[in-house]
Automatic annotation (TrEMBL):
This is GlxA family transcriptional regulator. Residues 225-323 form the HTH araC/xylS-type domain. PANTHER family: ARAC-FAMILY TRANSCRIPTIONAL REGULATOR, HTH-TYPE TRANSCRIPTIONAL REGULATOR RV1931C. Pfam families: DJ-1_PfpI, HTH_18. It comes from Nocardiopsis mangrovi. It comes from the Bacteria. PROSITE patterns: HTH_ARAC_FAMILY_1, HTH_ARAC_FAMILY_2.
Length: 344
């Protein structure tokens, strides 16, 4: 049976960064390499460029020339936008000329529309994500939601399948989505065999929440910095809002207001994020048992740690530990210091 054609958008007029090159290579590898023993014919891949290179190239100094152009998107069965230039995301620069209208024409012609990482900004600009649940790299999810309020952005998942429109988180999550497309088109067995050949899991547990840095950025309020740093080094204690407010020489109400203004979150949520972030670090860098990590981070029992991990990270502590190779960092010495302090 024929699985159809896949058109991949290449923003050749702006130049391709190293990250964009990685995301571009994913659909090229999955859909552009024939697998005659798995399915014959395989997908027909088209690389559709947005125009000739012009102006300064990306830092990599790399530009691509393609055989097909944006007009060729409309004839494809599946259209994939791997990414859009960083300037379009960070600085609000316009998307490559003609891209939005080409995406709309392809969708109107019945193409299955797919974005990887920041490619969601192009689908959103075309109005194809309005009223839909969608995702993007967690670093850019807030920008996507702010710029396109009609999109229901979910930054906790690796990808979202909304039928004829699919979106993925960043980088390797694009591979998860492309394998999912193969699974939809050709079945689980072929998708699993392809994943084996690529030396990747056919399906990863959890979502991108397990890769999010839960530590809130440093507060702009300099008056809070000392108490927040103190709290980070005493997470094993049963800290309360009153404790932190008292240490900051503020009333609980004032402390709450200033912390929320500086970090965008409540004191209790800030504490939970710090504890989960520390637990992630200890799972990555030590072989401490889960119950001990629960004690060191102030999350309590192993059961309580598992509960919060499943709710906020999306996987169990054991699965999280398996996903990250153990490495020695300063967190290991931190764990020793915390343990010694707790034993006194």
């Amino acid at each position: 049976m024929s699985v159809g054609s896949v058109a991949v958008v290449v923003t050749e007029d702006i130049g391709v960064s190293s990250w964009e090159l990685y995301e571009l290579s994913i659909p090229c590898t999955v859909f552009g390499t024939p697998q005659p023993d798995l399915a014959d014919p395989w997908y027909e891949l088209r690389l559709c460029g947005t125009g000739r290179p012009s102006g300064p190239l990306a830092d990599t100094g790399l530009a691509l020339r393609t055989r097909y152009g944006l007009d060729d998107l409309a004839g494809a069965d599946t259209v994939i936008v791997p990414s859009v230039p960083d300037a379009c995301v960070d600085d609000g620069a316009p998307l490559p000329r003609g891209l939005v209208s080409a995406l709309r024409r392809a969708h109107d012609a019945g193409a299955r529309m797919v974005s990887l990482c920041t490619g969601a900004f192009a689908l959103a600009e075309a109005g194809l994500l309005d009223g839909r649940r969608a995702t993007a790299h967690w670093l850019h999810a807030a920008q996507l939601a702010e710029r396109h309020p009609k999109v229901r952005v979910d930054d906790s998942v690796l990808y979202v399948d909304d039928g004829d429109v699919l979106t993925s988180a960043g980088l390797t999550a694009g591979l998860d989505l492309c394998l999912h497309l193969v699974r939809r088109d050709l079945g689980a067995h072929i998708a699993n065999q392809l994943a084996r050949r690529m030396v990747v899991p056919a399906h990863r547990p959890g979502g991108q929440a397990q890769f999010v840095d839960l530590s809130v950025p440093a507060a702009d309020d300099d008056g809070l910095a000392p108490v927040l740093e103190w709290a980070r080094t005493h997470l094993d204690r049963p800290l309360t809002v009153d404790d932190l407010a008292r240490r900051a020489a503020m009333s609980p109400r004032t402390f709450y207001r200033r912390l929320h203004a500086a970090t965008g979150t409540t004191p209790l949520q800030w504490l939970l994020n710090q504890r989960l972030g520390r637990a992630q670090g200890l799972l990555e860098t030590t072989d401490l048992p889960v119950d001990r990590i629960g004690e060191l981070t102030g999350l309590g029992t192993a059961g309580n740690l598992r509960h919060h991990f499943l709710k906020h990270v999306g996987v169990t502590p054991r699965d999280y530990r398996r996903a990250f190779p153990q490495r020695v960092t300063d967190l290991e010495s931190d764990a020793t210091l915390i343990g010694r302090r707790g034993e006194r």
